[in-house]
Amino acid sequence: MKNLIFILILLVLWAGCSINENIVVKSPNGKNLISFAIDTTGTPAYSVKHNGKPVITPSLMGFDFKNFPSTGAEMKILNSQVSPFSEEWEMPWGEQRIVKNEYNELVVNLVEVNESGRKLNIYFRAYNDGVAFRYEFPETQKDLIITDENTQFNLTGDHKVWWIPGDWDIYEHLYNTTKFTEIDALSKRWHDALAQSYIPENAVNTPVTMKTEDGLYLSFHEANLTDYAGMTLKIDKENLSMTSELVGSDRFGWKVKRDAPFKTPWRTIQIAEKPGELIESKLIVNLNEPDKIGDVSWFKPMKYMGIWWEMHLGKSSWDMASGKHGATTKNAKAFIDFASQNNIKGLLVEGWNTGWERWIGFEDREGVFDFVTPYPDYDLEEVVSYGREKGVDIIMHHETSAAPRTYDQQLDTAYALMNRLGIHSVKTGYVGKIIPKGEYHHGQWMVNHYRRVLEKGAEYKVAINAHEPIKATGIRRTYPNAISREGLRGQEFNAWSSDGGNPPEHLSIVAFTRMLSGPIDFTPGVFNIKLEPYKKDNQVNTTIAHQLALYVVVYSPIQMACDLVENYEGNRAFQFIRDVGVDWEQTRVLEGEPGDFVIIAREERETGNWFVGGITDENEREATFYTDFLDPAAKYAVTLYKDSENAHWEYNPTEYDIEPLEIKPGEPLTIKMAPGGGFAISFMKR
After folding, report:
1. What is the rounded CA–CA span in Å between residue 163 and residue 174?
2. From 492, 585, 603, 604, the catalytic residue
3. Catalytic annotation on 492?
4. What is the pTM of this model?
5. Mean pLDDT of 309-316
6. Are residues 93 and 163 in the same domain?
7. Domain that holds residue 21
8. Residue 497 domain-assigned?
């Protein structure tokens, strides 16, 4: 309440006083403009325009501290400087090979005009695809404790919003589509399918994407989240405003504790005139530091299979005591045999190590897993050796059961084992409430844990695919071994969620929200859509053609063929999974609208093959796009995988057609998608 009163007072003062400082910086193309001002009370504020029209109206900036007065009033500008920057850098793997990083930067140096004389620097960057800013505390200060960050984002209208609640523990909520004034995060509490959840107020998690009445698309997020708490955005419906709300620590009673000098994460706003421009934007990765690892040739992007989906179906179990243990040497070899015959280079094995009998549902989960001891029916070294003979790499699995201190203590031991065996990637998991109590998945303490895992992985040549993670904020540029992560409601919910699983629109929203932050391990490829005979009350709410399209639509340098071997054998649609790439030279978003549909084309590195994926929501849709992305001098063997005439996500979801196409580069294609359906096309260079 104190902070709300403080902000309201400042808003009144802003409305009634003149501006004595005004500094602007424009994007290289001149479309995006950031304006910084100090009013007569000494309150710093910024605003944003696109093509001369307001995007963010004057919004206040400041912090509350423990044992120190708040910043935000009685400040003046000491100095300011605008400078341009332009570079190109290469992704070791990604949506595109070459990334252009071009912006104009404004640095404002502030000082409090009182006896404290405290200094604060603010960095603004104006890009062609959006804007960003961060704070710097430049003076030496031990144990600077932030209790709140009061960064405002004042909107220009009651925008259409695609949002999930500001949960401090998990991102596995379905997206909601409402007006800004209809956001009700508190109604999403107590979801019975979530292993952990804490929603303290009406706030949203980021990225949160909006559409204005003028048809402008905005997405709010953060970049380079380092040694700081994750940011949610608190909703003020009356004033059409959002304010940064950091995830806290109940153990210590603060949000952030740092030794200054330090810089905060970037606060980002992606701005697009077409929705596909949000997906093509590289604003988030560009705001991170260059690669700190160096040579990462030890990891190769790949498709993989897993002893995983069968556990979610109930065919087998993670633990041995159940009597239907899935992670056996025999089962792993069978998957390896199939993978090696079908251009699939990896196998994830879950449930291989002892401890699964007590991994969840217990208050004391410290020391449950040791990450090196396999169950007696799983010969780790034999499986690794067999996979190597067949050209299939084993992917390690480390479920921590949300006991990160146990994992911290054993990182060297676990990663040394992986390094010795030549295992170069691991899927980590953090299911449950964090131990120690009072910490949350998205707070500073856990942000630092996730970073330690990345750093330790780099030391031992291990790539990390984190589940139940902190949000992606582009750190994959700095640590390319951050190959993928979950951080959304994934495929597994289709197998057991009491709400019927992910609706058909789910991934046509995800593409314009969660995917903007970075790669997603969504685990596509279910062919047994009805989940028979295992789950009579659940199914996957898409068609097979939709599942194929996800290998192109949802980006990750690792893509799982998640279904059981028996559901792939003899199925002609599996040819697309054999063929589709995972590492891209370039990406083009051809058409789309958040929550409705999206069509994406990607060119595979080295081969020059192109793949196109399109998905729709619950509505039947006919889409037309041009093939001007193809090389006009090349010839392609073109194969279309599409919904059959009678396909529908509720009935006939497995009905599809495969057609060869004769098409010249630049010609249009019109394809019909069934309700909950989609299509996939391979353009293989001859």
Report:
1. 9
2. 492
3. yes
4. 0.96
5. 98
6. yes
7. 2-286
8. no
